[in-house]
């Protein structure tokens, strides 16, 4: 991340805290619904609703004009889009901090794109038996190949959705990270109770992550969020509808937002499917300014919760992320 990104983010966050000024500094853009994987816990449909290249490039230019500093591309699988190289080139030309969430299958054949993004995030469910069971046979082999290629070209994070199938394999994930030199992140599975880890077992895992992070294992999640999770009452429900002591301010729709593949925009993924705002018909800036948060008061989902703590000026979370960006 360039100094100008930090400066612009800092200005926007301070203005938001003192004057409620809304700036879309952080946009998660689910750029395609298409996917070449079959995750057991995935809730997304795969209907083709993607915008064409001209519309995608146009809305990204609008994001830049509105003050966006970071775009996180997700899917589906973004690398399935034949125009994704053009999209990344535009972001690089304007100095955006660009991240990509991927299953890794297409990473080895897209090295030139890797070189132009700032961070790659790969889904990692555990050892071969577990990873393949959550997706399909051969997916673990493809992931490890992607990791070996990616670490040569781009800072890498893996993201693990904690389920009853993989919660016993934290050591394997952390040892693999130490071996190849990447960071890890985690999030409990929500909603699908048949895959949810019992709360007490999950809290034991969280305590383990806190201990391992203190020993220097490459865990990106902040201590603040890990300890926040320890007080969460029911992990199958990732939202609170009554604000409690210790909950950060929700900045969804104020400093960050989510854009779907068809142009719909919402404060976060909780409201994306009910949103009637569309950035193609209304324009990005106008649509963003109309955003409203849902009736929830707090969120435990990894990335949104980290943003909420960071933009609420929590010093530990800010320092944790600054260290990561500086090292990478």
Number of strands: 10
User: What is the rounded Rg?
Assistant: 19 Å
Cα distance, first to last residue? 9 Å
Kindly name the structural category: alpha/beta
DSSP helix fraction: 40-55%
Count of helical stretches: 13
Q: Which CATH class is shown?
A: Alpha Beta
**What is the annotated CATH architecture?**
Alpha-Beta Barrel
| Annotated CATH topology | TIM Barrel
H/E element order? HEHEHEHEHHEHEHHEEEHHEHH
| Sheet with the most strands: spatial strand order | 6-5-4-3-2-1-8-9
Q: What overall form do the CA principal axes indicate?
A: globular
How many domains? 1
| Main sheet record | 8 strands, mixed
Give the name of the CATH superfamily: Aldolase class I
How would you state the average pLDDT, rounded?
A: 92
Strand proportion: 5-15%
Poorly predicted regions are none
Describe this structure as you would to a colleague.
With 328 residues, the chain is of the alpha/beta class. 40% of the residues lie in helices and 13% in strands. Helix 4 links the parallel strand 3 (97-102) and strand 4. Helix 8 (199-214) packs antiparallel against helix 9 (223-230). The N and C termini lie close together (9 Å). 45% of the residues are buried.
């Amino acid at each position: 991340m360039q100094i100008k990104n930090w400066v612009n983010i800092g200005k926007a966050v301070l203005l938001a805290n003192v004057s409620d000024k809304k700036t879309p500094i952080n946009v998660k853009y689910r750029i395609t619904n298409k996917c070449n994987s079959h995750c057991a816990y995935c809730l997304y449909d795969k209907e083709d609703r993607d915008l064409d290249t001209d519309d995608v490039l146009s809305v990204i230019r609008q994001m830049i004009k509105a003050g966006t500093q970071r775009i996180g591309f997700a899917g589906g699988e973004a690398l399935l889009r034949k125009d994704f190289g053009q999209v990344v080139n535009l972001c690089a030309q304007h100095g955006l901090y660009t991240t990509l969430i991927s299953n890794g299958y297409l990473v080895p054949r897209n090295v030139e794109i890797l070189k132009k993004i700032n961070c790659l995030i790969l889904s990692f469910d555990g050892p071969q038996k577990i990873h393949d069971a959550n997706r399909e046979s051969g997916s673990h082999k493809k992931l490890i190949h992607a990791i070996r290629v990616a670490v040569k070209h781009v800072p890498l994070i893996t993201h693990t959705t904690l389920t009853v199938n993989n919660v016993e394999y934290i050591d394997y994930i952390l040892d693999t990270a130490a071996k190849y030199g990447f960071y890890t992140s985690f999030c409990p599975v929500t909603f699908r109770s048949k895959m949810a880890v019992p709360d007490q077992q999950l809290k034991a895992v969280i305590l383990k992550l806190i201990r391992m992070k203190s020993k220097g294992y490459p865990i990106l999640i902040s201590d603040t969020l890990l300890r926040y999770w320890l007080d969460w009452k029911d992990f199958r429900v990732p939202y609170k509808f009554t604000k409690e002591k210790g909950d950060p301010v929700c900045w969804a729709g104020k400093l960050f937002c989510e854009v779907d593949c068809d142009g719909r925009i919402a404060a976060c993924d909780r409201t994306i499917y009910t949103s009637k705002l569309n950035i193609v018909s209304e324009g990005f800036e106008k649509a963003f300014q109309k955003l409203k948060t849902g009736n929830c008061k707090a969120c435990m989902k990894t990335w949104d919760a980290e943003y909420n703590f960071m933009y609420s000026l929590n010093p530990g979370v800010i320092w944790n992320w600054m260290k990561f960006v500086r090292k990478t």
